[in-house]
Design brief:
- The chain contains nine helices and twelve strands.
- The chain has two domains: 5-95 and 283-300, 3-Layer(aba) Sandwich (Rossmann fold), CATH 3.40.50.720; 98-273, Rossmann fold.
- Strand 6 (140-144), helix 4 (148-157) and strand 7 (163-167) form a beta-alpha-beta unit.
- It has a seven-stranded parallel β-sheet with strand order 8-7-6-9-10-11-12. Strands 2-1-3-4-5 form a five-stranded parallel β-sheet, covered by helices on one side.
- With 315 residues, the chain is of the alpha/beta class.
- Helix 3 crosses helix 4 (148-157).
Length: 315
């Protein structure tokens, strides 16, 4: 039997939950805002918690107020304090940013091949009509991880004539026609022209790209990271850049974030750095909330939740 009322505690601005009330006009939806750093009110009681993907200082106090389900407002939860859950299910907005991120990836792949922005001019060049530019046609794209974001990247890369290979945790067949699946990281990286990191950061993937894995790559490879900074050993990346193993690194994610002033990544001539913005787009926040609304519908009907995070795998 469906529930007729729900009490949601949130550590996001309460006005952001307006779409929730609109989605369930026949359900009594009460939203209680709990500031992330504030003391938890003694009389707080709630069924569901909508919180930040890295947790909050008062998370334990909120969880102790009867919370039966937690949703992290984000796609990655590598910073979440899983030990506090004590059996309470955690979901996230996995895949919500796939369209925006995949477009960003295609943009930086094209920028690398077409030598943008360095081929823009503001004075007469040495010669007109001539340039040494590349193309995505025929290039080999390696996708580390093959979840929703990587699949969206693959679907956009294939029409450019790229040869796309992915690496995933399971032995299931490729859900995207035309994409091959590698059996090992070495097999994936060998021969790739562009490598995109799109896997979750977990204890198993921490510094997945290290001196050994950079050694699998052919000289001059283009590395793109839109996942989490912790998947890349940045000192190993520095050595790979200096050796020419990595020709260009386009990094939307680094470790730590924000990166401190004066860090070598800011000034390296073959590093293109952006402040973790690949997910951004006109519908990005709406997409994150849609995952929560979808799951709230399941919860109200007593059905199984989607986008559930495995507390052991931490993804």
């Amino acid at each position: 039997m469906a529930r007729s009322s729900i009490r949601i505690a949130t550590q996001l601005p309460a006005e952001m939950l307006a779409p929730v009330r609109e989605a369930f006009p026949d359900t009594s939806v009460e939203v209680v805002f709990v500031p992330p750093d504030a003391e938890v009110p003694e009389d707080l009681a709630a069924d569901v918690l909508l919180t930040l993907p890295w947790g909050t200082p008062n998370l334990k106090g909120v969880l102790d107020r009867g919370i039966q389900w937690v949703h992290a407002y984000g796609t990655g939860v590598n910073g979440f304090p899983f030990e506090l859950l004590e059996g309470v299910p955690l979901t996230c907005s996995r895949g919500a940013s796939a369209a925006a991120i995949s477009e960003w990836v295609i943009a930086v792949l094209l920028a690398a091949e077409k030598r943008l922005p360095e081929t823009w001019i503001d004075a007469p060049p040495e010669r007109w009509n001539m340039a040494e530019l590349g193309t995505l046609e025929g290039r080999r794209l390696a996708l580390i991880g093959f979840g929703g974001i990587a699949q969206a990247i693959a679907r956009r890369a294939l029409p450019f004539g790229m040869h796309v290979t992915g690496l995933r945790r399971t032995e299931a067949p490729s859900p995207v026609e035309g994409v091959a699946l590698a059996t090992s990281l070495e097999a994936l990286l060998s021969g790739a022209d562009h490598v995109v990191v799109a896997a979750p950061q977990t204890p198993a993937t921490q510094h997945l790209l290290n001196d050994e894995s950079f050694g699998f790559m052919k000289p001059g490879v283009h590395l793109v990271n839109i996942a989490r900074g912790g998947l890349v050993d940045q000192e190993a990346l520095r050595r790979a850049l200096e050796a020419g193993r990595v020709g260009l690194a386009t990094l939307d994610c680094v470790e730590p974030e924000p990166l401190p002033e004066g860090h070598w990544l800011y000034r390296h001539p073959r590093v293109r750095l952006s402040p973790h913005i690949s997910w951004a787009g006109p519908t990005s926040h709406g997409g994150l909330m849609e995952r929560f609304i979808e799951n709230l519908g399941y919860y109200l009907e007593g059905q199984a939740l989607d986008y559930v995070v495995d507390p052991v795998e931490q993804y």
